[in-house]
Amino acid sequence: MVFWVVAWMQDGSSGKLIEEMPGHGLTAIPGSNLTQITQVATEEYSNNVGMYPLNQYFQILPAGVPPPGAPQIGGSLKSITVSLNPQISLGKGSKIEATMQATGAPAQSVNVVYYDGDPSKNGTLLEVQKMAYLNPDMDYYHRAFFSPKTCGTHTIYARAWTVNSSITQATATTNVTLDPVDSAQALINSTERANITDATLRSTLLSLLNSALQSFQQGQTQIGETTLGSYVQELAAASGKGVSADNANRLIGQSGVAFGCGPKGFSLSALSSSAEVSAGSTASYVLAVTPSGGFKGAVSLACDGAPRGTTCSISSQSVTLDGTTQSPVTITITTTGRTSAAGLVVGPPPSGRGRILWSLMLLLTAIAIALLQRERRRQIVLGCVILLMLFTSGCGSSNNRSTPVGTYNVTVSAMSGNTVQNATIKLIVR
Hints:
Elements: E1 2-8, E2 17-24, E3 58-61, E4 76-84, E5 87-89, E6 94-103, E7 107-116, E8 124-134, E9 140-146, E10 152-161, E11 168-177, H1 180-193, H2 199-217, H3 221-238, H4 245-260, E12 265-270, E13 274-277, E14 282-292, E15 296-304, E16 310-314, E17 318-322, E18 327-335, H5 353-371, H6 375-394, E19 406-416, E20 419-429
Parallel strand pairs: 5-11, 13-20
Antiparallel strand pairs: 1-2, 1-3, 4-6, 6-9, 7-8, 7-10, 10-11, 12-14, 14-18, 15-17, 15-19, 16-18, 19-20
Helix pairs in contact: 1-2, 1-4, 2-3, 3-4, 5-6
Protein backbone atom coordinates (compact mmCIF):
# COMPACT_ATOMS: atom_id res chain seq x y z
CA MET A 1 0.00 0.00 0.00
CA VAL A 2 1.34 3.41 -0.98
CA PHE A 3 0.39 6.60 0.87
CA TRP A 4 0.91 10.31 0.45
CA VAL A 5 2.54 11.85 3.48
CA VAL A 6 1.50 15.49 3.79
CA ALA A 7 3.50 17.79 6.05
CA TRP A 8 0.71 19.58 7.88
CA MET A 9 1.20 22.44 10.36
CA GLN A 10 -0.58 21.66 13.66
CA ASP A 11 -0.22 25.11 15.20
CA GLY A 12 -3.85 26.08 14.81
CA SER A 13 -3.28 28.26 11.80
CA SER A 14 -5.24 28.00 8.59
CA GLY A 15 -2.99 25.14 7.57
CA LYS A 16 -0.33 25.33 4.89
CA LEU A 17 0.90 22.44 2.85
CA ILE A 18 4.70 22.37 3.14
CA GLU A 19 5.86 19.12 1.52
CA GLU A 20 4.47 15.79 0.42
CA MET A 21 5.98 12.44 -0.42
CA PRO A 22 4.78 8.83 -0.69
CA GLY A 23 5.39 6.55 2.22
CA HIS A 24 5.48 2.80 2.56
CA GLY A 25 4.11 0.99 5.58
CA LEU A 26 3.86 4.20 7.66
CA THR A 27 2.10 4.19 11.00
CA ALA A 28 0.02 6.94 12.56
CA ILE A 29 1.82 9.70 14.42
CA PRO A 30 0.59 10.08 17.97
CA GLY A 31 -1.63 13.11 18.44
CA SER A 32 -2.50 13.51 14.76
CA ASN A 33 -5.92 13.26 13.14
CA LEU A 34 -6.00 10.59 10.43
CA THR A 35 -8.53 10.49 7.64
CA GLN A 36 -9.42 7.44 5.60
CA ILE A 37 -6.40 5.68 4.04
CA THR A 38 -6.80 4.25 0.58
CA GLN A 39 -4.36 2.54 -1.77
CA VAL A 40 -3.10 4.84 -4.54
CA ALA A 41 -0.65 4.56 -7.39
CA THR A 42 3.00 5.50 -6.91
CA GLU A 43 3.78 8.96 -8.28
CA GLU A 44 6.79 11.23 -8.64
CA TYR A 45 7.68 12.88 -5.38
CA SER A 46 10.16 15.16 -3.70
CA ASN A 47 12.65 13.69 -1.25
CA ASN A 48 13.90 16.90 0.34
CA VAL A 49 12.61 16.03 3.80
CA GLY A 50 13.82 18.35 6.54
CA MET A 51 14.61 21.21 4.19
CA TYR A 52 12.44 23.66 6.09
CA PRO A 53 12.76 25.12 9.60
CA LEU A 54 9.61 23.37 10.87
CA ASN A 55 9.16 20.86 13.63
CA GLN A 56 5.60 19.60 13.21
CA TYR A 57 3.63 16.40 13.07
CA PHE A 58 2.58 14.65 9.87
CA GLN A 59 -0.89 13.65 8.78
CA ILE A 60 -1.48 10.81 6.35
CA LEU A 61 -4.09 11.64 3.71
CA PRO A 62 -5.24 9.83 0.57
CA ALA A 63 -3.51 10.98 -2.59
CA GLY A 64 -5.13 14.01 -4.20
CA VAL A 65 -7.13 14.95 -1.09
CA PRO A 66 -6.08 18.41 0.13
CA PRO A 67 -5.96 19.11 3.84
CA PRO A 68 -8.89 20.98 5.34
CA GLY A 69 -8.81 24.65 4.37
CA ALA A 70 -6.01 24.29 1.80
CA PRO A 71 -6.28 26.82 -1.03
CA GLN A 72 -6.68 25.92 -4.66
CA ILE A 73 -3.62 24.87 -6.71
CA GLY A 74 -2.69 26.71 -9.91
CA GLY A 75 -0.21 29.45 -9.16
CA SER A 76 3.06 30.05 -10.93
CA LEU A 77 6.62 30.66 -9.84
CA LYS A 78 7.31 34.33 -9.15
CA SER A 79 11.04 34.50 -8.38
CA ILE A 80 14.16 32.63 -7.34
CA THR A 81 17.44 33.78 -5.80
CA VAL A 82 20.57 31.74 -5.06
CA SER A 83 23.49 32.27 -2.70
CA LEU A 84 26.65 30.45 -1.62
CA ASN A 85 29.95 31.20 0.07
CA PRO A 86 32.00 33.52 -2.20
CA GLN A 87 35.23 31.69 -1.28
CA ILE A 88 35.50 27.88 -1.29
CA SER A 89 38.43 25.53 -0.74
CA LEU A 90 38.97 22.88 -3.38
CA GLY A 91 37.38 19.54 -2.56
CA LYS A 92 35.37 20.86 0.40
CA GLY A 93 31.59 20.93 0.16
CA SER A 94 29.70 24.20 0.38
CA LYS A 95 25.98 24.83 0.78
CA ILE A 96 23.94 26.36 -2.05
CA GLU A 97 20.68 27.96 -0.94
CA ALA A 98 17.85 28.98 -3.22
CA THR A 99 14.88 31.13 -2.17
CA MET A 100 11.63 30.90 -4.15
CA GLN A 101 8.23 32.53 -4.20
CA ALA A 102 4.98 31.61 -5.96
CA THR A 103 2.38 34.10 -7.07
CA GLY A 104 -1.35 34.13 -7.73
CA ALA A 105 -2.16 30.82 -6.06
CA PRO A 106 -0.18 27.96 -4.56
CA ALA A 107 2.29 26.40 -7.00
CA GLN A 108 2.54 22.65 -7.23
CA SER A 109 5.42 20.42 -8.35
CA VAL A 110 8.15 23.05 -8.60
CA ASN A 111 11.26 21.73 -10.33
CA VAL A 112 14.59 23.01 -8.98
CA VAL A 113 17.84 22.35 -10.88
CA TYR A 114 21.42 23.46 -10.12
CA TYR A 115 24.34 23.74 -12.57
CA ASP A 116 28.02 24.56 -12.27
CA GLY A 117 28.33 26.83 -15.28
CA ASP A 118 25.83 28.05 -17.84
CA PRO A 119 23.45 25.17 -18.68
CA SER A 120 23.07 26.55 -22.23
CA LYS A 121 26.85 26.13 -22.65
CA ASN A 122 27.30 22.60 -21.30
CA GLY A 123 27.33 23.54 -17.63
CA THR A 124 27.72 20.61 -15.22
CA LEU A 125 24.46 19.38 -13.69
CA LEU A 126 24.79 19.30 -9.89
CA GLU A 127 21.35 18.33 -8.57
CA VAL A 128 17.68 18.00 -9.53
CA GLN A 129 14.88 18.28 -6.96
CA LYS A 130 11.13 18.80 -6.87
CA MET A 131 9.19 20.85 -4.32
CA ALA A 132 5.60 19.71 -4.06
CA TYR A 133 3.86 22.86 -2.92
CA LEU A 134 4.57 26.60 -2.56
CA ASN A 135 2.09 29.04 -1.03
CA PRO A 136 1.94 32.40 -2.83
CA ASP A 137 4.05 35.34 -1.64
CA MET A 138 5.95 33.31 0.94
CA ASP A 139 9.67 32.53 0.95
CA TYR A 140 10.57 28.88 0.50
CA TYR A 141 14.14 27.67 0.88
CA HIS A 142 15.88 24.87 -0.91
CA ARG A 143 19.40 23.63 -0.30
CA ALA A 144 21.98 21.67 -2.28
CA PHE A 145 25.69 21.07 -1.87
CA PHE A 146 28.58 21.91 -4.17
CA SER A 147 31.99 20.20 -3.94
CA PRO A 148 34.24 21.78 -6.63
CA LYS A 149 36.84 19.71 -8.44
CA THR A 150 38.71 22.58 -10.09
CA CYS A 151 39.98 25.95 -8.92
CA GLY A 152 39.05 29.33 -10.27
CA THR A 153 35.77 31.20 -10.60
CA HIS A 154 32.62 29.06 -10.71
CA THR A 155 29.18 30.41 -11.53
CA ILE A 156 26.30 28.45 -10.01
CA TYR A 157 22.99 28.56 -11.89
CA ALA A 158 19.70 27.78 -10.11
CA ARG A 159 16.66 27.20 -12.29
CA ALA A 160 13.07 26.60 -11.21
CA TRP A 161 9.76 26.18 -13.05
CA THR A 162 6.29 24.64 -12.85
CA VAL A 163 3.86 23.43 -15.47
CA ASN A 164 2.23 26.87 -15.29
CA SER A 165 5.35 29.03 -15.53
CA SER A 166 8.44 29.51 -17.63
CA ILE A 167 11.94 28.91 -16.27
CA THR A 168 13.07 31.37 -13.61
CA GLN A 169 16.84 31.57 -13.16
CA ALA A 170 19.35 33.06 -10.72
CA THR A 171 23.15 32.91 -10.46
CA ALA A 172 25.88 33.30 -7.86
CA THR A 173 29.66 33.08 -8.18
CA THR A 174 32.36 31.67 -5.97
CA ASN A 175 36.15 31.55 -6.16
CA VAL A 176 37.64 28.12 -5.55
CA THR A 177 41.19 28.10 -4.20
CA LEU A 178 43.74 25.67 -2.82
CA ASP A 179 46.38 26.47 -0.21
CA PRO A 180 49.71 25.71 -1.98
CA VAL A 181 51.32 24.70 1.31
CA ASP A 182 48.60 22.11 1.91
CA SER A 183 48.91 20.96 -1.70
CA ALA A 184 52.69 20.48 -1.47
CA GLN A 185 52.37 18.63 1.82
CA ALA A 186 49.69 16.35 0.35
CA LEU A 187 52.02 15.58 -2.58
CA ILE A 188 54.83 14.75 -0.16
CA ASN A 189 52.54 12.34 1.69
CA SER A 190 51.36 10.73 -1.56
CA THR A 191 54.93 10.37 -2.86
CA GLU A 192 56.08 8.77 0.39
CA ARG A 193 53.26 6.22 0.15
CA ALA A 194 53.78 5.51 -3.55
CA ASN A 195 55.60 2.35 -4.62
CA ILE A 196 58.84 3.87 -5.95
CA THR A 197 61.49 1.15 -6.24
CA ASP A 198 64.34 3.42 -7.31
CA ALA A 199 65.80 4.92 -4.11
CA THR A 200 67.58 7.70 -6.01
CA LEU A 201 64.37 8.69 -7.80
CA ARG A 202 62.43 8.71 -4.52
CA SER A 203 65.07 10.92 -2.92
CA THR A 204 65.05 13.32 -5.89
CA LEU A 205 61.26 13.61 -5.94
CA LEU A 206 60.97 14.24 -2.21
CA SER A 207 63.81 16.75 -2.34
CA LEU A 208 61.99 18.72 -5.06
CA LEU A 209 58.73 18.63 -3.14
CA ASN A 210 60.34 19.81 0.08
CA SER A 211 61.97 22.67 -1.84
CA ALA A 212 58.57 23.58 -3.30
CA LEU A 213 56.96 23.41 0.14
CA GLN A 214 59.60 25.73 1.56
CA SER A 215 59.06 28.21 -1.29
CA PHE A 216 55.28 28.20 -0.74
CA GLN A 217 55.76 28.71 3.00
CA GLN A 218 57.90 31.75 2.24
CA GLY A 219 55.31 33.15 -0.17
CA GLN A 220 57.48 32.47 -3.24
CA THR A 221 54.66 30.98 -5.29
CA GLN A 222 56.33 31.20 -8.71
CA ILE A 223 59.52 29.46 -7.51
CA GLY A 224 57.41 26.79 -5.82
CA GLU A 225 55.44 26.12 -9.01
CA THR A 226 58.63 25.95 -11.07
CA THR A 227 60.00 23.35 -8.65
CA LEU A 228 56.75 21.41 -8.90
CA GLY A 229 57.19 21.50 -12.66
CA SER A 230 60.58 19.81 -12.27
CA TYR A 231 58.95 17.20 -10.02
CA VAL A 232 56.38 16.43 -12.71
CA GLN A 233 59.07 16.13 -15.38
CA GLU A 234 61.11 13.75 -13.22
CA LEU A 235 58.01 11.58 -12.81
CA ALA A 236 57.23 11.66 -16.52
CA ALA A 237 60.79 10.71 -17.46
CA ALA A 238 60.91 7.89 -14.91
CA SER A 239 57.47 6.42 -15.63
CA GLY A 240 57.99 2.66 -15.83
CA LYS A 241 61.59 2.98 -14.59
CA GLY A 242 61.62 2.89 -10.82
CA VAL A 243 57.96 3.88 -10.56
CA SER A 244 54.99 2.29 -12.26
CA ALA A 245 53.16 4.21 -14.95
CA ASP A 246 49.97 4.12 -12.85
CA ASN A 247 51.69 5.63 -9.82
CA ALA A 248 53.46 8.21 -11.96
CA ASN A 249 50.22 9.26 -13.67
CA ARG A 250 48.40 9.47 -10.34
CA LEU A 251 51.06 11.74 -8.83
CA ILE A 252 51.25 13.84 -12.00
CA GLY A 253 47.46 14.23 -11.90
CA GLN A 254 47.59 15.33 -8.28
CA SER A 255 50.27 17.87 -9.22
CA GLY A 256 48.09 19.12 -12.06
CA VAL A 257 45.39 20.05 -9.54
CA ALA A 258 47.92 22.21 -7.70
CA PHE A 259 48.93 23.92 -10.95
CA GLY A 260 45.30 24.61 -11.74
CA CYS A 261 44.90 26.41 -8.40
CA GLY A 262 47.86 28.74 -8.68
CA PRO A 263 47.75 32.32 -9.93
CA LYS A 264 46.90 32.50 -13.62
CA GLY A 265 50.04 32.28 -15.75
CA PHE A 266 52.70 29.72 -16.58
CA SER A 267 56.10 28.53 -15.42
CA LEU A 268 59.21 27.35 -17.29
CA SER A 269 61.38 24.64 -15.79
CA ALA A 270 64.28 22.47 -16.97
CA LEU A 271 64.37 18.73 -16.37
CA SER A 272 68.00 18.52 -17.48
CA SER A 273 69.68 21.83 -16.66
CA SER A 274 73.35 20.96 -17.34
CA ALA A 275 75.27 19.21 -20.12
CA GLU A 276 79.00 18.63 -20.71
CA VAL A 277 80.29 18.10 -24.26
CA SER A 278 83.45 18.26 -26.31
CA ALA A 279 83.82 21.10 -28.80
CA GLY A 280 82.11 20.00 -32.00
CA SER A 281 79.41 18.01 -30.16
CA THR A 282 75.74 18.75 -29.45
CA ALA A 283 74.07 19.26 -26.04
CA SER A 284 70.33 18.70 -25.51
CA TYR A 285 68.03 19.89 -22.71
CA VAL A 286 64.38 19.13 -21.99
CA LEU A 287 62.26 21.97 -20.62
CA ALA A 288 58.54 22.26 -19.92
CA VAL A 289 56.06 25.13 -19.99
CA THR A 290 53.38 24.50 -17.36
CA PRO A 291 50.12 26.48 -17.09
CA SER A 292 48.79 27.58 -13.71
CA GLY A 293 45.43 28.94 -12.72
CA GLY A 294 43.90 27.54 -15.91
CA PHE A 295 46.04 29.72 -18.18
CA LYS A 296 45.32 29.20 -21.88
CA GLY A 297 47.13 30.71 -24.84
CA ALA A 298 50.27 30.78 -26.96
CA VAL A 299 53.71 31.08 -25.36
CA SER A 300 56.77 31.88 -27.49
CA LEU A 301 60.29 30.73 -26.62
CA ALA A 302 63.76 32.16 -27.24
CA CYS A 303 67.36 31.25 -26.43
CA ASP A 304 69.97 33.82 -25.39
CA GLY A 305 73.56 33.87 -24.12
CA ALA A 306 75.02 30.96 -26.11
CA PRO A 307 78.83 31.30 -26.44
CA ARG A 308 80.76 32.06 -29.63
CA GLY A 309 80.88 29.24 -32.10
CA THR A 310 77.53 27.71 -31.09
CA THR A 311 73.99 27.66 -32.37
CA CYS A 312 70.96 27.33 -30.05
CA SER A 313 67.77 25.88 -31.51
CA ILE A 314 64.35 25.11 -29.98
CA SER A 315 62.13 22.21 -31.04
CA SER A 316 59.16 24.59 -31.15
CA GLN A 317 59.31 28.37 -31.23
CA SER A 318 55.82 28.53 -29.70
CA VAL A 319 53.55 26.25 -27.64
CA THR A 320 49.83 26.59 -26.98
CA LEU A 321 48.69 25.84 -23.42
CA ASP A 322 45.24 24.40 -22.72
CA GLY A 323 45.05 25.39 -19.06
CA THR A 324 46.08 22.05 -17.53
CA THR A 325 48.66 20.18 -19.64
CA GLN A 326 52.42 20.70 -19.66
CA SER A 327 54.08 21.37 -23.01
CA PRO A 328 57.64 19.98 -23.29
CA VAL A 329 60.28 21.59 -25.51
CA THR A 330 63.81 20.49 -26.42
CA ILE A 331 66.71 22.93 -26.52
CA THR A 332 69.68 21.90 -28.68
CA ILE A 333 73.05 23.69 -28.53
CA THR A 334 75.52 22.72 -31.28
CA THR A 335 79.16 23.57 -30.67
CA THR A 336 82.00 24.02 -33.22
CA GLY A 337 85.20 21.99 -33.02
CA ARG A 338 88.70 23.48 -32.97
CA THR A 339 90.98 22.98 -36.03
CA SER A 340 94.62 23.99 -36.68
CA ALA A 341 94.98 26.95 -39.06
CA ALA A 342 98.67 26.38 -40.03
CA GLY A 343 99.19 26.82 -43.80
CA LEU A 344 95.63 28.04 -44.16
CA VAL A 345 95.61 31.53 -42.72
CA VAL A 346 97.01 34.19 -45.05
CA GLY A 347 97.94 37.66 -43.92
CA PRO A 348 99.46 39.16 -40.84
CA PRO A 349 98.67 37.98 -37.34
CA PRO A 350 95.81 40.02 -35.84
CA SER A 351 97.91 41.87 -33.23
CA GLY A 352 100.72 41.79 -30.72
CA ARG A 353 104.20 40.34 -31.08
CA GLY A 354 103.23 38.19 -34.03
CA ARG A 355 102.32 41.22 -36.13
CA ILE A 356 105.71 42.92 -35.30
CA LEU A 357 107.70 39.83 -36.31
CA TRP A 358 105.68 39.46 -39.47
CA SER A 359 106.35 43.10 -40.46
CA LEU A 360 110.05 42.76 -39.71
CA MET A 361 110.35 39.66 -41.86
CA LEU A 362 108.50 41.39 -44.67
CA LEU A 363 111.01 44.30 -44.53
CA LEU A 364 114.01 41.97 -44.54
CA THR A 365 112.54 40.11 -47.50
CA ALA A 366 112.22 43.30 -49.51
CA ILE A 367 115.83 44.27 -48.73
CA ALA A 368 117.14 40.83 -49.65
CA ILE A 369 115.29 40.85 -52.94
CA ALA A 370 116.68 44.29 -53.76
CA LEU A 371 120.29 43.23 -53.02
CA LEU A 372 120.15 40.03 -54.98
CA GLN A 373 121.04 40.47 -58.65
CA ARG A 374 120.24 37.17 -60.07
CA GLU A 375 116.65 36.33 -60.89
CA ARG A 376 116.82 32.73 -59.80
CA ARG A 377 118.18 33.59 -56.38
CA ARG A 378 115.48 36.19 -55.85
CA GLN A 379 112.79 33.60 -56.56
CA ILE A 380 114.29 31.07 -54.17
CA VAL A 381 114.61 33.53 -51.32
CA LEU A 382 111.14 34.94 -51.89
CA GLY A 383 109.54 31.47 -51.81
CA CYS A 384 111.29 30.55 -48.56
CA VAL A 385 110.25 33.77 -46.87
CA ILE A 386 106.64 33.35 -47.91
CA LEU A 387 106.53 29.82 -46.44
CA LEU A 388 108.14 31.07 -43.26
CA MET A 389 105.61 33.89 -42.94
CA LEU A 390 102.69 31.56 -43.47
CA PHE A 391 104.04 29.19 -40.85
CA THR A 392 104.59 32.00 -38.37
CA SER A 393 101.16 33.54 -38.79
CA GLY A 394 99.22 30.30 -38.84
CA CYS A 395 101.05 27.86 -36.60
CA GLY A 396 99.47 27.33 -33.22
CA SER A 397 96.44 29.53 -33.84
CA SER A 398 92.86 28.18 -33.85
CA ASN A 399 89.74 28.94 -35.83
CA ASN A 400 88.15 32.06 -34.36
CA ARG A 401 84.68 30.53 -34.89
CA SER A 402 85.27 27.44 -32.75
CA THR A 403 83.62 27.13 -29.31
CA PRO A 404 86.11 27.99 -26.55
CA VAL A 405 86.55 25.67 -23.60
CA GLY A 406 84.59 26.86 -20.57
CA THR A 407 81.32 26.87 -18.65
CA TYR A 408 78.44 28.97 -19.97
CA ASN A 409 74.98 29.86 -18.67
CA VAL A 410 72.37 30.06 -21.41
CA THR A 411 68.98 31.70 -20.76
CA VAL A 412 65.77 30.27 -22.22
CA SER A 413 62.79 32.64 -22.10
CA ALA A 414 59.06 31.87 -22.36
CA MET A 415 56.88 34.89 -23.20
CA SER A 416 53.17 35.61 -23.50
CA GLY A 417 51.95 39.20 -23.46
CA ASN A 418 53.68 40.99 -20.59
CA THR A 419 54.51 37.75 -18.79
CA VAL A 420 58.07 36.45 -19.15
CA GLN A 421 59.51 33.40 -17.41
CA ASN A 422 63.19 32.42 -17.63
CA ALA A 423 65.10 29.21 -17.04
CA THR A 424 68.91 28.83 -17.02
CA ILE A 425 70.70 25.88 -18.59
CA LYS A 426 74.44 25.23 -18.21
CA LEU A 427 76.77 24.30 -21.07
CA ILE A 428 80.22 22.89 -20.22
CA VAL A 429 82.63 22.68 -23.17
CA ARG A 430 85.72 20.49 -22.72
